[in-house]
Amino acid sequence: MSHLFSPFALGPLQLANRIAIAPMCQYSATGGLATDWHMIHYGHLALSGAGLLILEATAVSPEGRISPADLGLWSAEHQQALAPIVQAIRRYAPIKLAVQLAHAGRKASSAPPFEGGQALAPAQGGWQTVAPSALPHAAGDPAPLALDQAGMERIKADFANAALRAHALGMEAIELHGAHGYLLHQFLSPLANQRSDHYGGSLENRMRFPLEVYDAVRAAVPSGMALGMRVSASDWVEGGWDIEQTLVLAQALKQRGADFIHVSSGGLSPLQQIPLGPGYQVHFAQRIKADTGLPTIGVGLITEPLHAEAIVANGQADMVGLARAMLYNPRWPWHAAAALGAQVAAPPQYWRSQPRELKNLFGATRLGQR
Fold this sequence. Notes:
The protein is built from 10 helices and 12 strands. It is an alpha/beta fold and about 375 residues long. The strands form 3 sheets. The chain has an 8-stranded parallel barrel with strand order 3-4-5-8-9-10-11-12, surrounded by 6 helices. Helix 1 links the parallel strand 3 and strand 4 (about 50-60). Helix 5 (about 205-220) runs parallel beside helix 6 and helix 6 (about 245-255) packs across helix 7. The longest helix is centred in the middle third of the chain and has 21 residues, at about 150-170. It is globular, with a radius of gyration of 20 Å.
């Protein structure tokens, strides 16, 4: 039996297999509201056969968006815009749904990548950003405002309220975005956090705000809703956040009952030096899984079924997350199941596509014809 296609649980969330579709920003919302693009995009990914679909970084407040076109969940109107998409997926796919709740911090107020990705001035539709410290992300970027206690309390409440809306939508899980140089990661890294109060300096202090956000979200939603965090295990910059600090954070999350950790890296500094290659981040997931036992999702240029199978079979990660590979091939799990001699869910409308030599690829199918 394929390890990749064996069942797994993220806390209370039972999954049919070990394939997660990782969050991928679409930069296609209008005022934070989901559009027809999201219906098309998530609709076809929901038919992929993966066990879990994690919606893109979804801002908990307007100023928390990476770009003006980011998806949001900061009001009832935003919840209502997502509802038809969730309902359509529920009607036609068994895939489980999660949402990545996010605040971009100093990396907010930017143009979408396909429009250049540069910081936007107010005249260009941008806004004042906030961060742990008044340090810009890159040279030439506008400086963010350093958050005061009231601002931090407001952001914690924004995360909790967005979590309540995700639960009301029927999502089964929430992933807090603590990676890729966004606000929670900014608090963690000494490169971005140079505060002198009890939210800066020591590792314990730098972890304080992200863990407070975690606690606020956990208190807001029932225990039956899985909750985890995506982390960058390294800034890939000397003197920055690294795997040893990540292990301490992971232990703190485990003590709080976190249901999973999703392990990425980078994104905090333009000075990062990342050695790209297939599975280049998986060793971070392996360390965290071995050290904490937390259910762990590994990512990083995983494109081949045999590679994904080996990661799970060898205990490097409990699940694999695919992003760009899934965009390139939205039926990646079908082809992986075929390569590994496994079965995968497919909608009955597509059963006739099952290759003749793979009679059981889609399980027990029954087709008649007149």
